[in-house]
Amino acid sequence: MSAEVFFRKYRPRKLAEVVGQTSAVTYLRGMLKTKKVPHVLLFTGESGVGKTTLARIVAKSLGCHSSSDLQEINAAVDTGINTIRAIDRQKDSYPMVSKSRVWILDEAQRFTKDAQSALLKILEEPQPWVYFAICTTDPQNLLPTVRNRCTTVKLDAIEDKDLEALIDRVCEGRGSVFRGRFERSSSTTPKDRRGSYWFCFIKSPRSLATRSNWLRLRGGISRRRALRSVGTYSPVRSPRGRPWRRI
Fold it and tell me: What angle do CA 215, 217, 221 make, to 5 degrees?
């Protein structure tokens, strides 16, 4: 099996492909249809629900297709005021190729208070072609004055049935079928659950026992429950040409 980065290959590229976020997708679709998109959007929700993905989709819908006009800043790395000063120096420039310029500020709760205060002035009067998408798992860590200048798009926790449907589509597209339940501990995020599925049923399809051990490790469950969760993985043929056996 060739090496592939699954989260890139199967990341949604348009609103219709987004899983488990009906309310947010409807809200954004209405904005884009009426061409009344706020210049500052605040995407909130737990890790792995699609905040950055939706921000990228909105950016492309606004006509921002060039990497020179779409800039992503990870506040977990660039936390200080110098990052905001760099934005301030560029915010009045026209787009180089696209129709608009978009800044995606990921993990924005990690910005220092000084950085947030500097960002506040930038958000007050953006140019008509400039948009900001602020993504955070903890909006309460943002200054109230920053939150008040944003239009909030709240993303819901993704239900297991939606993740199971997604993994079914991925497996079927690769000539495989998964049937069964997904057992997890209450502390895992959607990103962890999705990662467990893909590791178990796509990246390592050779051994049900290995997959059950991995699932038990990730979910903190017993081997018996893990095997019951794995259920049946039944591609047409195994890597050695023999049919898979059911446990």
Answer: 75
Q: 156 near 26, Cβ under 8 Å?
A: no
Rounded (to 5) percent helix, strand, coil in the chain: 45, 15, 40
**What are the pLDDT digits (tens) for 103-142?**
999 999 999 999 999 999 999 989 999 999 999 999 999 9
Q: Provide the 10 A C-beta neighbour count for residue 41.
A: 23
Summarised one tens digit per residue, pLDDT across range 224-242 is 554 455 444 433 334 444 4
Which residue pairs, CB below 8 angstroms and at least 24 apart, start in 29-34? 32/58, 32/61
Domain ranges of the chain: 6-154, 160-233
CATH for 6-154?
3.40.50.300
State the pTM of this model. 0.73
Contact yes or no for 118/87 (Cβ under 8 A): no
Distance CA 133, CA 160 (A): 27
